[in-house]
Amino acid sequence: MPSGRMIKLVVYEVLQVACLSVPMFVVMERFASLMLHVRGDLTAYWLVVAASIAYVTSVSLLVWVPLRYFVLKQRTVITDITQWRPTTLAYVILCTLPCFSILIAGSKVQVDKGPQYRQDHFSELPVSLVLFSLICVDIIERIRPCCLTGQADHMEMDLDMPGPVLTHLEQVNSVSGQLYYERGQNGVLVNSSATGRWRDQEAVGSRSTSAAYLYSSSHSHSGPLRVLWSQDMRSEVIVHSFLFWMDVVELVRVAGIPDVFYSGWVFAVYILAFLSCLRLAVTPHSALLPSAGFFLQDLPFLLLRLGLISVHGYITPLLYPMKNLLVCLTFTYFNFLTKLRLFRRDSMF
């Protein structure tokens, strides 16, 4: 009888193959139906369907299966990779890119044939299925090292969860406590007679205590409401993965609006959406992820949304361009402007 580890491995691999093939089949079938409507020829329909089957079969056998073999066998060429994920990058290139290309081709075909042939703007099922499969692949790759039964290993899960991780904390409640801490660590009392120095050290203790309150991941609570304090990092991975892609989901939703889909804006929407999907290849704790989010998502999305709003009106909620603007401003300020002499003064707030 196969072990639980083997069953989990097979289930994960089958789910990833399904996420690779099902969106392609659905999008290609819709495109084949569109070609049947435009040309009125059943041969074009079956040619597109046959092309989709041939593509999925060849890609699965020639690219996906060898890649998964090297990943599972932990070959040197794979174990040396620490800043990006080969499986997710391959999925974005092999599935997401062709699906977005087919959606653009569907728009181009209908625009060239005239307004009377505009019947399908590929909203809802095809686009939602592509993005849902993308999210599922991300979730599988993050939750793969974890057991699906029993309690979660928080230290193991923290490696796959982006965000601040508090590994060590010294709580300092007062200035004297800070001085005692420095004396015990260094053996020498640090000369810090400036008033601002005292305040800074006290603020360090306050910030450390606040950080412990915000980011502590394990609490022991009892009583009738203890069920409300329960948490499991495995479920948080799923929630975070969906939230991570909400900005892309909203942008692609705008592409399904007929005024956008049957115009040149559809090219910009799907191209920028694909570039944003490339962030999936970066490991969650990589130092490249904030820069990738700025250059591949927030800055391009902000410019695109401003252009869409100026031409088509408020077709997207203002929350999203405001979010992109805020992220761009804070990223530029904290990563570049704070390094200037003007913003390095300790006396400023």
Question: What do these coordinates show?
Answer:
The protein is mainly α and 349 residues long. The protein has 2 domains: 4-146 and 233-340, no CATH class; 164-218, no CATH class. The protein is 68% helix and 0% strand. The protein has helices at residues 4-39, 42-72, 76-79, 86-113, 125-143, 154-158, 175-186, 195-215, 233-244, 246-255, 258-261, 265-277, 288-312, 319-335. Helix 5 runs antiparallel to helix 9 (233-244). The longest helix is centred in the N-terminal third of the chain and has 36 residues, at 4-39. The protein starts with a helix and ends in a 14-residue tail after the last helix. Mean pLDDT is 80; it is low at 162-170, 179-204 and 206-218.
Number of helices: 14
Structural class: mainly alpha
What is the approximate shape?
globular
Give start-end ranges of low-pLDDT stretches.
162-170, 179-204, 206-218
Gyration radius, rounded: 26 Å
Q: What portion of residues belong to β-strands?
A: under 5%
> How many domains?
2
DSSP strand count: 0
Quick description:
This protein has 349 residues and is mainly alpha-helical.
SSE blueprint and pairings:
Layout: H1 4-39, H2 42-72, H3 76-79, H4 86-113, H5 125-143, H6 154-158, H7 175-186, H8 195-215, H9 233-244, H10 246-255, H11 258-261, H12 265-277, H13 288-312, H14 319-335
Helix pairs in contact: 1-2, 1-4, 1-5, 2-4, 4-5, 4-12, 5-9, 10-12, 12-13, 13-14
